[in-house]
Structures are given as structure tokens and as C-alpha cells.
Amino acid sequence: MKKRTLILSFFTPLLFLTVGCNSDFLETSPTEFLTQEQLGEASQNNPDLLRGTVSGIYSLMFEVGTGGTTDHTDFGQKGVDIWTDMLSGDIALSQNTYNWYRNFVDYQSTVDFTRNENYIPWRYYYRIIRSTNIVITALGGNDAVPALAENRWLMGQAKALRAYSYFYLAQIYTRDYDASREILPIYTETTQQSLPKSTTAEVYDLIESDLQDAISLMSDFNRTAKNQVDQNVAKALLAYTYAAMGNNEDAYLLTEEIINSGVYPLTTATELLGGFNNINTSPSWMWGVDLTTDQGLDLISWWGQMDLYTYSYQWAGDRKSIDRTLFNAIPSDDVRKGQFDTQLRPVNKFYDPNRVIGGQRVVVTDYVYMRIDEIYLLNAETAAKTGRETEAQNRLIQLLTSRIPSTSYISSLTGNALQDEIYKQTRIELWGEGKSYLAMKRNQATINRGTNHLFQPGVAVPYNDPRLKFSIPQAEILYNPNINDQN
């Protein structure tokens, strides 16, 4: 399999955002055809300029090389999702031929700040942050509320995407939530460069503020495509933020709001075996992207790593399977047991509908970023953690009714047993979707890999072990004089 080289760019009608690397993470003059001031003035009456810029930011979430490398693991959010599911132990590398994940799953890459695995997500998320800062500055700055409705919606989307990026940075580059620990530099202006690390509390304060602003700014926003963040997605991101902070009360209340809105139905039993491949026939998807031939994705993609029915590493010899211990925990009469084959590959959960082994070359199967089922599970989790055990049981029953023949056992679960069941069901339901790592940290779990992992099977690793987080990359330490350590 040959690597391909892709020159990445995204355009607005009059604006070209250049993308540097290393010291150019947050260059101060990132526009070529318009100055920042001219863009701000022009966008006051012509939202088309910034609409194109925001569309470009969404493209960063799935384009190849957005983390600044030619690695076949560098393709935006879904690339990070694979890494985090591997760190949680739920994705097992059960056959290794091409070595893209070999050092990562062996706990070598995360502790070596020179490895690309640490550089790719750092550059990817800060690239989104830089781009959102361009939009926010053009619309008047962090405290502005644009007069035009469309500009207000664009501001809301930009703030939500900035918060999303800082949230993931705070999750994957730190061991746990320690309010006083210095963890990441915060950039909220286009003119800022090479700042020192801010504390966990300061980072989460910005995430919370941005998402609260986004929810308000997008109160009347009706999106035209599911790749766009809307108010419900912003609420979900804020609920995840609160839960990560240990603020389960506010996380519970927000998830209640999303569920009670009635916008999204639960994923049905049929859909659970339907391939997770079409955003237009997946009403439970809250956030995702409709991929077409125009994007030109192929081998270097999530499908190119995970799907047996795509021209992929899954087909050619880098097998990603469900952890055997987790698979054995799924009852035989659970619909979700059928998502996996005898080699524990997800051949009936994620697949190109043509079902030709190694067949799909140009990827048009879609990406899911968030679905309502995870909100039910987060709601149940935070309900249980705030003493609302009946509510937690009922939410879990709602989710599982179409998945297992009988849910009667749930009504007898209380205390740690109830919380453990919710955590287990979160891992089963959302396997391969990039959510297990977040749940592992929220529940302060210890992972113990099953026997089908090629590397480190049976080794107990607690959620806050340094091996389960990424290191601040060498490039940042070299080019930012205010940061001199990997942690």
C-alpha cells in the first residue's frame, strides 16, 4: 500500500487561510487576500465570507493530513477516536502487519514526545482553534454579539468548535482533572503567540464560557447539514465538559434537555446492524458528516482503518477487534453481539453497504461524531452519580429495550453495581465511536486488556497512568519558549 501526498487547503470566496506547522501553529497574519480588519468589516454585511471559512473548519475534522503529517493515521477527529478507543482498551489490535499502531498500543508512543502520535492531535486541535479565532475576531471579538442573525450563528459555531478542541486537548493531554495543574496554552486572539500553559481550571472555564455563549447565540439556528454544530450539539459538549469536571448535576440537567427536546430518536435494533454508513438515514445521529466523492477520501481515513469492506488495513492485515473480555460480557441474545464476527471484527456494525471485501476505494460512507444514544447513557450515568437511581434505571431501560429481550435485572441495580452497568453498556453501545476513553476517565476505571490484544494483554493500567495520555509534542517544546516539559 502506497502512501499518498495531499496538499491541504480550504478556500472562501476571498479568503485563503494558510496552514503552517511547528512554530506556525498560531501565526499572527493568517490571511493572504484580506487583512483581519478588512475581513471583519466586509463580513458585517456579507456573511458569505465567514460562512466559507467556517465550512473550511468543519472540513479540517475529516481531511487527510490535518495533523501535519503524511501518516495513515492522520485524518482528523476519527483518527483521534481510534487512538482513544485503543487507549481505553476497547479496540484491540489483534493482528499487526503495517505497524501504524504497533508502538502506540504497546504504550511506547504516548510517553515519547518525539513521536507523531503526540504531534498530530496537538496540531489538529490547535489548527481548529486558530481558525475559530479568525472568525471570532472578524465578528467583533470574544465579547461581541453580532447584529446579523447569520453572523451570530457563525459566532456560535466558532465558539463551540473552539470549545470542542480545548475539551479534547484537556482530555487527552492530561491524566485527570486537577484544577490547579498547568496543562495547555490558551489562545483566544489571533495576535497571541507562544503562550505558557494555563491551569486546568482556566482551560475548563474557557470551554464552559464558549459553550454557554454558543448555546445562546444559536438559540434560533436551524442548520442545513448535520456536520454543523447546533444548540443541541453544543449542549452535549457542555454536558461532557461538566461530567469530566465532576459536575454531574449540571451534566444531568443538560442531557435531560436534549432528550426531552424529542429531536432525535434512539438508534433502532435494525440500525445497530445497518452499517453506520449513511447520515441521511440515521435520525439518531446528532452530529456527523456526509462524505461524497468530492472529498476524495480513500485508504487514509477512518473507513480505511476499520472497515473490512473498504480498501483498508482492516482487510489487508491490521485487524482492529473488540476487546475479548468486553465481547464476552455481551449476552448472546443482545442484538449488539451480532455486530462482530468470529475474529471479533465489527463487520456488522461498520461497513460499506456493497459488502465487497476490500471493495470501497473512494470513501462515501459517512462519519458519525455524536448520536443521541450516548446522551441517554451520559444521562443515566450522571443521574446515578447524583442519587437519581430510579431515573438512571429508567434511562438505561429505555436504551436497552430494543437491544436485549429482558431489562428486568436493571431495576434491582443500585450504587456501584448500577454505575458499573451503565459504564459497561456505554462501552458496548459506543464501541469504535471514540467515546470509551472519555467514559474511562469519568469513571476512573482501570483497564485490563483481553487475550486478543497483541500487546500488553492482561496488564492492569489505571485511568490516570501516564501511558494513557498523550505528551506535549517535541515541536511545541522546541518552538514555544514558555513550555519546556512534556506534561
Quick summary of this structure?
By secondary structure, the protein is mainly alpha-helical.
Q: Helical element count?
A: 18
Question: What is the class in the CATH system?
Answer: Mainly Alpha
Ranges where pLDDT stays below 50 over 5 or more residues in a row are: 1-33
The helix/strand series, from N terminus to C terminus, equals: HHHEHHHEEHHHHEHHEHEHHHHEEH
How is the main sheet built? 2 strands, antiparallel
Distance between the termini: 35 Å
Structural shape? globular
Extended strand count: 8
Strand order of the largest sheet: 1-5
**Count of discrete structural domains:** 1
The structure class reads: mainly alpha
The CATH topology label is Serine Threonine Protein Phosphatase 5, Tetratricopeptide repeat
Output mean pLDDT: 92
CATH architecture type:
Alpha Horseshoe
Radius of gyration: 21 Å
The helix content, as a percent range, equals 40-55%
The proportion of residues in beta strands is 5-15%
Give an account of the 3D structure.
With 487 residues, the protein is mainly alpha-helical. It has a single domain (22-446, 462-473), classed as Serine Threonine Protein Phosphatase 5, Tetratricopeptide repeat (Alpha Horseshoe), CATH 1.25.40. The protein has 18 helices and eight strands. The chain has helices at residues 36-43, 48-60, 77-87, 102-105, 116-138, 149-172, 200-217, 231-245, 248-260, 269-272, 302-306, 313-316, 324-328, 372-385, 389-400, 415-429, 436-442, 474-479, and strands spanning 91-95, 182-184, 198-199, 285-289, 319-322, 367-371, 446-448, 460-462. Helix 5 runs antiparallel to helix 6, helix 7 runs antiparallel to helix 8 and helix 8 (231-245) runs antiparallel to helix 9 (248-260). Residues 323-465 form the RagB/SusD domain. InterPro entries: SusD-like_N (IPR033985), SusD_RagB_dom (IPR012944), TPR-like_helical_dom_sf (IPR011990). This is SusD family protein. Keywords: Cell outer membrane, Membrane, Signal.
